[in-house]
Amino acid sequence: MSTSTAEGRLLRYVDALQEAFAQEMARDESVFLFGLDVDDHKSIQGSTRGLLQEFGPERVFTTPLSEDAMTGMAIGAAMAGMRPIHVHIRMDFLLLCMNQLVNIAAKAHSMYGGSVKVPLVVRSMVGKSWGQGAQHSQALHSLFMHIPGLKIVAPSNAHDAKGCMIAAIRDDNPVLVMEHRLLYGTEAYVPEAPFEVRPGRARVVGPGDDITVVAISNMVPECLRARDLVAEVGISAEVIDPVWLQPLDIDSLLASARRTRRLLVADNAWLPCGASAEIIAAVLERAGPDAGIMVRRIGFAPVTCPPSPPLEAAFYPNPGTVASAIHAMVRPAAPAWQPDPERTRLSYQSSFCGPF
Amino acid sequence: MNPENRGDSDTQTIVRLYRRMRLIRHLEEEIARVYPTDKIKSPIHLSIGQEFIAVGVCDVLTAKDRVSITYRGHAAYVAKGGDLRALVAEMYGKRTGCAKGRGGSMHLIDMDAGVIGASAVVGTNIPVAVGFALAAKRQRSGQVTVCFLGDGATEEGCFAESLNFAALHKLPILFVCENNGYAIHEPLSKRWATDRLVERVATYGIPADRISDGSLTTVRARAAEAITAMRAGAGPAFLEVLCYRWQEHVGPNRDYDQGYRSADELAPWKADDQVARLADRIEPALRARIDAEIRVQVAEAFTFAEASPFPEPEELYEHVYS
Ligand SMILES: Cc1ncc(C[n+]2csc(CCOP(=O)(O)OP(=O)(O)O)c2C)c(N)n1
Ligand SMILES: [Mg+2]
């Protein structure tokens, strides 16, 4: 388990991503970055800003709207010795890439007996708020966690955005990077020199004794807010960011849950067959029958994401619902408790404005 | 030709088309005007400048016929007779919206009017529209399906797969590609090796035509020919209609200052604005009356949307399974 560092400069998540690409592309000629709109003036919210100018159109290019074929193309290039980074503005579009990712990228190394490798990075962004609705809001990491051969990482802050991206680019396996639109503007200290946040290491982002809260992607800042809220009523929650979802650092999660004997997993996704279910199953399996760990999950409501504001608000977990869940687990005999809704608001969440 | 419209005098036709065109234009201008108030919290894709395609095609359809639309679908929704108030309410996320606040701007639908839905994953509506055409053929309903799509959608694999199947089964479907030259900010030159789209389509055995004069009259005439043949069993047809998106890809503004395209591109299209062209052919007093009626109609739709209730949070769990 590593702890967060305070070295480096304060950088936005989006700029940390950009820095990772710029540094890795300068270091390694075989890295190239492509996907719809990576080279336009909006440059994927700024995350690919300046790369076209610096590395030229052979290494930074847009594509036709052909996600399926472009994924296969990237896989082939990777097998031939390149290091492609394929970019998608929404994670929902990965469903068009599913066949190539699952049937080729994940399996090539294994089904060809180790004679090839697929050092591919697939970036995609989860959308939330402003009526993203049914098809622009999905976080599909669980689908990919199911598949041996794929690695999945969900950086929750600028530091990890850079470190995980560099680790993903240097990894010899296909790595899916799940970014989150609402994290793009958030800041953290990020070292200037290239560094890696390697697979399989969770991080305690807020220590505590009464309960372990495992938070995925943008649920990390939301759970940290929930941690503040429950602290006001005397509950000490430990928030852990698994960072990498595949491979998962179960040991760190288990060590915390053994100590607090309560495990809540907060995902920015649906629960059935999800990352939350996997984490709980893996922890309990390893803990054995006598560990006495109380478990619970919180995530999307089991419905299609609605754009209507009151429905959308009810669809997502938030610091208030997480805090209530924590309270219910730590003080099961006490009456249900809800923090003041105004106090649960997150500034970065309410500041987002359209049009997209 | 729509039998309901047969025997129209020229003037009646012009007035009818002008009404549709003006209604759509005014509606979208109002959406753009209201948008900065944040009452519409949903990504809007305006079709200002492209309305002539939907209006020309839908004018030759019957009420029973169907249109499959995209996230840039306001024009076709209205042109096909979709409920105006339900459209605006949907943008507001209200319970009275055409999808009860569960679709948003990108997923308009009005099954009663033959608007069979809009997808925000580009190209996904194409095979679904083919399925409606297959059903119509099997059910011998005589219904024709029109599938609207953008130039970008032709790059998806399911486009080619759908064309092949529709041709193979001689399905009653008219594909209408609104080629505005861009997918978001990416011009055709960065996405196609050649622009011979209609030739590509023709090799599937589908009659394919390119309309490059930007004229509502031409679109309407070609659509009428294709649909008449289709009703007689001719199978699918394809129209590529060149057009221009006047506004930004998503949102209420113009974006000629962003560097990816210049206002010079807009100029010829604007000079040939099909709304203005039709307006010129209508006697001023009548035109003023129509414009006034449309202003009232659109204002009423917005008032309706504003006054409608939001869904209650408890309604979240409805409509997951039928
Ligand atoms: C499968 C898929 N890929 C990418 C996107 C992102 N995207 C939304 S609209 C759009 C451009 C589509 O262009 P076109 O089909 O020409 O339609 P237009 O917007 O010009 O009307 C893109 C790339 C998407 N929604 N779906
Ligand atoms: Mg286009």
Automatic annotation (TrEMBL), chain A:
Coiled coil: none annotated. The keyword Membrane does not apply. InterPro entries: THDP-binding (IPR029061), Transketo_C/PFOR_II (IPR009014), Transketolase-like_Pyr-bd (IPR005475), Transketolase_C (IPR033248). It holds the Pfam family Transketolase_C. Keywords: Oxidoreductase, Thiamine pyrophosphate. Its cofactor is thiamine diphosphate. Residues 11-186 form the Transketolase-like pyrimidine-binding domain. This is Transketolase C-terminal domain-containing protein. It comes from Azospirillum isscasi.
TrEMBL record, chain B:
Pfam families: E1_dh. It catalyses: N(6)-[(R)-lipoyl]-L-lysyl-[protein] + pyruvate + H(+) = N(6)-[(R)-S(8)-acetyldihydrolipoyl]-L-lysyl-[protein] + CO2. Coiled coil: none annotated. The pyruvate dehydrogenase complex catalyzes the overall conversion of pyruvate to acetyl-CoA and CO(2). It contains multiple copies of three enzymatic components: pyruvate dehydrogenase (E1), dihydrolipoamide acetyltransferase (E2) and lipoamide dehydrogenase (E3). This is Thiamine pyrophosphate-dependent dehydrogenase E1 component subunit alpha. Its cofactor is thiamine diphosphate. It comes from Azospirillum isscasi. Keywords: Oxidoreductase, Thiamine pyrophosphate. Residues 19-314 form the Dehydrogenase E1 component domain.
